[in-house]
Request: fold
Amino acid sequence: LHLIGSLLLWALLARMRIPGAWLSGLLFAIHPVAVESVAWVSETKNTLSLPLLLLSCLCWVSQDEAASGPRRTRLYALSIVFFLLSMLAKTSVVALPVVMLLYAWWKRGTVSQQDAIRTAPFFLISIVLGIITIQYQHGRAIGAETILVGGVASRIATAGMAILFYLKQIVWPVVLLPIYPRWEVDPPKIWQFLAWPVIGAALALIWAKRGTVDRPQWGRHAVFGLGFFLLFVAPVLGFVTISYMRITWVADHFIYLPMIGVIALIGAAAARWYDEVEETAQPLILAGGAIILATCALLSFRYANAWASEDALWTHTLKSNHSAWQAHNRLGAKKFSRGDIEGGYYHFTQSTRLRPDLGETHNNLGSALSAKGRGDEAIKEFLEACRLTPHVPAMHVNLANALFARGRFAEAAEKFGELVDKEPQNPSLVNNYAVALFRKGDREEAVRQFRRALEINPDLKDAREGLAVATGERPDPTTAQPPRPAEAAAPAMPAMPAIPVMPLRSPASGKAYDPFDPLNLQGK
Reply:
């Protein structure tokens, strides 16, 4: 998909008669910033939306130059269809209608009423799907969570710094990370606003050098290229809160599309420079260009290796960003799952230190403490996790397990009872509730809950065995064997043979909840 997008970019720039079209397409294809979108399967929507967007642009440019007639109508209709498909792939292409008007100004020096009318369907698609995306971000991807982004001043400061950061990454893509340091901007410092005077001065200079339609100067092309970049990057600058901002303000995949405007400017400037210099200097330019392209390819290859596995990715992140709590959280989960309890404990401790306001960090630290036999400390962490993130069932399950493991059966029974009230058709939860009741000494209620579990699932072996113990038909197995350790995210009761609960579902997404997955990012 990325290769197709690169070839279509070449075709579009050539169709627009922009110099260096092939060079821009090649530079985009091998640019290190594109690695994240290509290597991260969750960002396939980025690489899918790009070809559709470029096809829409190709049809738009072609119909704009075609004579009135059936062919122009077909191209116009195809442009709308491809844009709709691109928006359905990812709504980050929402700015295209404004870019179309910018294209009209770049080409003809004005935006006519006809231009506005012909872009109306594109604006309609952008507005409708854009509103749906915002509603999804706030209603599902973010949900009840509070993402600390600061006030208006903080957002303005963040946006300016993000623009300069992205431009720097495009022209100097040396240090690339999946998680960049999250700047402290609440409250913002005076120097953090300095990006805006720099941006304003640059735009003023470019505008002054725009020339006319008949005699365009370099500023006219720069307005179009940088305008493309700014319009497409605007939705992710922080003025609208998105779920990924809980981790970082900036990300490479945010500029996969916007950087096309800057790359096209670089390619066009290089091609024009090559044509205008003396022939004796052209070999030096070719050699320099080849070195730059080879360096980009090498940087992309090296960075792609960091995406080979989670261990490689998060280790690479922590080398340059020690404050990446999410990297600590994920790397700790990988170590913990392999049985490296101490390694998991170290990284969970770091993630909790960095983000004590997140339930998931306390939950994972509690799991490591439980595995280390420090049950009372684990209970404190699980209690804090449940306080901070009350809507995630697995954290309450872990708390119930920890309480049971410490012999606090009454509290464990109460917690399992709360879980059963929320998931009354989960037979394993009901079974474990019954076990806790039995250990608490409430034999009668335990029998009733065991039978209830069997009504939901007659084949639940643990409920049958538990019922036999509770009714006295067989001896209590806990007097003959040591308790089995509780699982990190499944309330398999240690007191009696029990199976893990059915996969717990996130009330927001409806998907199985992974307690070690702090990303849970949808609609990024």
Confidence is low (pLDDT under 50) at residues 479-524. The radius of gyration is 29 Å. The CA atoms of residues 325 and 353 lie 8 Å apart. The chain is about 65% helix and 0% strand.
